[in-house]
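Lecture 7 notes. Example A: sequence first, then its structure tokens.
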Amino acid sequence: MYVQVFEFVLPRHRAITSNLVQVSYAVAIYYLAFIAYLVRSWRATLLYTTLPCVLSILALGFYRSPRWLILKQQYREAAEVFQKLGKFNKRPIQVRFQADNDDSDEHKTKSSKTYTILDCFKHKQTLVIFFTILLIQYVSGVIYYTMYLEFNNIGGSTYLVIALAATADIPAMFLASYFPDKYGRKKSFIASLIIIGLCVAPIVFTPQNYAKVVLVRTAAAIAVKIFFSFSADVMMLWTLEIFPTAIRTQGFVMTTMGLSIGSATAPFVVEYVRTWAYVAPFIVIVALCFIGIVLSLLLPETLGVPAREKFEDFFNTVRVDAEKN
């Protein structure tokens, strides 16, 4: 869905539309905290949290991406999508390509080569970008779930802290809708990780069970969540802009696997380092933020750059960034 929304809008609308999709995730976490607080039966909790999945059937009515259809030279289908969109918005769209030739044998023989994510492994430049994004997503996954697992050690009600953390995604959405378009994806991402490291300091240097600083520790945790959500939103948008349409969905899915791997390893990281000191997991967060900053320096800036369509445009991404620097 994230990729689908991205490919429907112009560059100036990418940030705001992509972040609107992320709001649903915040609502889901808030809903989960609410259900966990009210419902004590795990069976009932499972039922109430899976029922909303029925709404996913609405995705069957979504239009196919015109960018992808044009890339595959399915011009007739792309024209139909444009016409339906224009009709829905009551703004007729002029289709400037010939939509009646895409079924001809001559046209099919000229169809572009089909690329997969495996083509990224054939070139050094694309390989570096792929694994850099994968590692950044892994780092993000560890940070995110380490923070959630440590909410019990912050103080106060766990349900309230998690609900507030979910609510923190709302201001993060507004930040991620403005700053990446103002200062660029790279600068915004780096700044967010620096702020996360600074916000962790009150948690590390205040007593764990001192009642008067519970509010300070909770506020610091919420600030960490806001700027992590901000960095995650920027990274999602950045990833979609780096990968061309030819492999955008595959590249996005494969690199976000790093987020899943990070979330899976976070409990082991927390349990292991906590044996040293109760603040050790937060120190790990600071170290991972530094690693994320270093890795992000390897990625090209995509602010104001039109969405890449063909696989060959992947190399243009690298060259354009090299010229800027």
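Example B, a different protein, same format:
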Amino acid sequence: MLSQQEIKDNMVRFESISTEEAAQLAGVVLDHIQLKSNLSQMLAGLEFSDTSTKQILADTILSFINRLLQSRTATSDCSPLLKQAGLNDEYSEVISKVISNRLDTVVKDLAEKSSGDKLQDLEWRFGLTAASSTGAGTPFIQMRLQFENIQPVSIEMGMTEFYEFAADIKRIQAQMSNTLNI
């Protein structure tokens, strides 16, 4: 994935292709994300006025979309973000329209095709370490996670770590609810 600066540096290159080609390129990148196919092969079929920048621009759009997916909020209008990254108004509107029309579908497909093993069972137990002459015992939690296709995972953490973990899970749940409109 390209850095924020590389994305910004590459935005001026969009002016070497037409807005129609930019929209077509954004569509191909979204197809690549959704279908998990080879981007270079998909790009080979595109006829562009400036073929030398086709891969660079596709990588730029891909990196931008990946960053958008990682920090996605309820809105899918990414035109202001494209403008902020250095793309001119005309191109940002065209590319934003393509992304906005398909982003929700892409996100849902990615969630459905997730290769992560599904959690089957979660066992948990609270405990207290033995007290010593220097102090009282400290509380802890042990969790055993059982998945469909991999060995069970055991985790032990202190209460502070557990509360941080629980807060992270709530944040993830809220983000998934917003992203998937659940």
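Note on Example B: The chain has two domains: 4-112, 119-180. The beta strands are 119-128, 139-147, 153-158.
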